[in-house]
Each structure stands twice: as structure tokens, then as C-alpha cells.
Amino acid sequence: GHGGMGVVFKAADPRTGQIVAVKMLTGVGAISRQGRMGLVREARNAGQLHHPNIVQIYDIGQHKGFLYLVMEYLEGRSLDHILKSPPALALADKARMVIELCSGLGYAHHQGIVHRDVKPGNIFILSSGSLKVVDFGLAKLAEIAGLSSTKDINSRFAGTPAYMSPEQLNR
Question: Which H or E element spans position 132?
């Protein structure tokens, strides 16, 4: 798959044989200092998180000047894709997804990490029906006591405007 600043490959870990996903910065992101820092931040932040509703990060590295992130391989589809395809989700499925999303994000918040770009494209529904939050590239370590202060949480304009909180947009 691919996104705004990178491409994701399905791969096998040569040491363990485990199937993993490798996210590599490409294009502008590959040469942008901000893009490189974002990927390193994603690895550090998400790598600290061990929760069934958050994608697991295994490693970060560099190959021929390109940064890459090795993470848990997920089979399924993004919520964005699911919402654009018939049939419509059943109410029970929507409720379960909200509960799993809140569980994962609540855990991250208790660890001092704020995702800052929660949107259907960053919510992955596994083939089993379980939910995983992905792409902590915009996350920022925040002191738990400072979470009520949006100026501390949002040091710069980051996120997807259509999904941003009013606090992010009005700062």
C-alpha cells in the first residue's frame, strides 16, 4: 500500500521468517528532515505501546538513505475503505469498533501518547473483525498532566483537517 509520504511492503523477517509490514519513506518524505523525524517519532511512540488495538512496531532502520519501519503485518482493510463499500456496517459492529478504538487510544493516552490524526484511514479492521489503530507518525509524547492543555498537545499544525478537533483547528 501507499500513503502521502511512504509505501508499505509485505515482507518476511529473514531471521525469524515472520511476515511483517515494512513502511518506507519515499518521494518528498524521503528527503525531508521533517518526514524522517516523523517516522522516527512514530517508531519510538508506537514501539512503546503494547495493546491489542494498536499496531505493533518491531524495528526502525535505514537502507540507502531511506528510513523504514518494521511493524506487525495486518490482513484486512482500512475503515475508510470499508465505509466506502457496501454493505453498510451493522450497528453492533459500529459499537464494537468504537469500544476497541477507545480502548486503544485510551491506553495510548495513559502512556502519554496522543495520536493526533485519528481518521478512518488510520483505523484498520482485521479480517477477524478486530480493530487496530495505525500510523502514529503525528503522535507526540505528552505529559499526562498536560493533556488538558491543547497548546501543549499540539506544538504545530498536524493532522487531517476534516477529522481534527476544534482545539487543534482553533489554536
Answer: strand 131-133
One-letter identity of residue 160:
T
Among 37, 15, 25, smallest CA distance to 45 is for: 37
Query: How many other C-beta atoms are found inside a 10 Å radius of the C-beta of residue 143?
Result: 10
What is the C-alpha separation between 91 and 147, in angstroms, rounded? 31
List of residues 6+ apart from 156 with CB closer than 8 A: none
Q: Which residues are catalytic?
A: 117
* pLDDT tens, per residue, the chain with 171 residues: 776 667 889 999 999 999 999 988 776 555 567 766 766 776 777 788 999 999 998 888 888 877 888 999 999 999 999 999 999 999 999 999 999 999 999 999 998 888 888 999 999 999 999 999 998 765 554 333 233 333 333 444 556 777 766 666 666
